[in-house]
Amino acid sequence: MEYTIQKILEFHDLFPKEKDLDVRTILKKYSREYIVRCCHVLCNNYSNAAFIPDDNNTFFSEVSKKHIPGLNEKISKYRNTTGLDRVCYCTVKTALELMRVAFSIPVQEYKNEGQKEDFEYDLFRSVLMLNENLMAFSHVGQLDLATLLFANYYVQNDIINQNQSDSFVRQITHYKKLVDFLENHPKCANAYEVFMQKMGINSIDEYSKTWMSLVSLSMGYLKSGVKACPIFDYNQLKDEDHLISKSVLDNLCIDITATIPYDAEDAESRDNNVDYRTFRSHPLVRIDSGKYLIYSLHLLLERLYSSLFFDIKDGFKNAFAFYNKEFVERRLFQPAALAALSKHTSFFLPTK
Questions:
Q1: pLDDT at 297
Q2: DSSP-derived secondary structure letter, 294
């Protein structure tokens, strides 16, 4: 198997003579809902990464025809200079950073006065500027191997392609183990109850069934091949089997009018939106009463198990002392792993 590191296109790769772009000022020309819809397209329609050229998934439409010749010239010059056959210009992390900036701007500051023919051009330039900010890495002096490995891991985090099938299976497997433990361990009784009260449900099954239904809806949209941003109306769903809980939906969503601070006030804070925490916990946006947008299948898939810690921790008196790495690896999953391993290695064991 061959692995390659892909260069991410940055703003000054195409616009070397321009000053840094003020992304916030550009976004304010339009509407937040329009930007969030575009984040959905960027997150979900490009298999976690968007490339140039890609005839099947183009970024620009006919509306932007006045900008296309000039951009094609700049991109061709860049590719000829670098010798690259194709260039990655947007990743999952880029789209999440766009969401992070968009929600940090109070909704009343959006003017919704930008020209339609300029929107894709402005958004493309903004995306490249966000890439440049995300990829920025500076240091003084020589770095040791451990620091370089950490930096490399950080750069790749949320950028490498995600296998959706593997994520789906892993989340279900881990979730099942965690729920079994919560239901059968006496010290978890309060945390279990607090979580269900928070979600407004009577059974943990209401949570998992809602998640499964949302994943099915999101995957169904993607398989349809339509390059658009679907919004589903809970009030119009024919949910005869009661697979989707309205209470869970509202707990998993961000309101389109919400303001989420861009960063924490200090390094120790676990509030606000450091490392996209708010988006990891809320993979839906409520556009209107009963109307929701699943803006990232990438985050939705991880919502079944990976984000549960932050939902259940308030029910423990000392969550970080109890629900920690040692507990997860040695108490929660190791017995199952050893059981599975023993089935395949028993023939190595000595017989009496």
A1: 84
A2: E
What does the DSSP 8-state code read for residue 94?
Answer: H
The rounded percent of the chain whose pLDDT value lies above 90 is: 34
| Helix or strand holding residue 39 (H, E) | helix 32-44
Closest CA to 126 of 195, 210, 24: 24
Q: Is the peptide bond before 53 cis (omega within 30 degrees of 0)?
A: yes
pLDDT for position 149: 63
Q: Is 67 left (phi over 0), alpha (psi -120 to 50) or beta?
A: alpha
Question: How would you classify the pairing of strands 291-294 and 284-288?
Answer: antiparallel
For residue 160, report the phi and psi dihedrals to the nearest 5 degrees.
Answer: -65, 145
Where would I find the H helices in 185-203?
189-199
With H, G, I as helix, E, B as strand and everything else as coil, classify residue 91.
Answer: strand
Angle (nearest 5°) at CA 218 between 228 and 178: 155
Is residue 91 pLDDT above 70, yes or no?
yes
